[in-house]
Design goal:
It is a single chain. 47% of the residues lie in helices and 0% in strands. The chain has three helices and no strands. The termini are far apart. With 68 residues, it is mainly α.
């Protein structure tokens, strides 16, 4: 992938010079793109625990504020 990107050639030209099928290069590029996207939007779950003395938010006046 680095060689193709550094070459400045079109996909078709690079594939011809390197005896690689155009569809192969396109598949490599798509794979790289999807792998990068997955890492960028990686999500997960966070866990939390309430301490024994913590009160629910409804106990606080600010939690009952009315919006216009």
């Amino acid at each position: 992938m680095a060689a193709y990107k550094a070459s400045g050639l079109s996909k078709k030209e690079w594939c011809h010079e390197n005896a690689i099928g155009l569809s192969t290069l396109q598949r490599w590029l798509q794979h790289e793109k999807s792998r990068t996207s997955r890492n960028r939007y990686k999500t997960g779950f966070l866990s939390s625990r309430l301490r024994q003395n913590d009160q629910p938010a409804s106990k606080y006046k600010s939690a009952n504020a009315k919006l216009p």
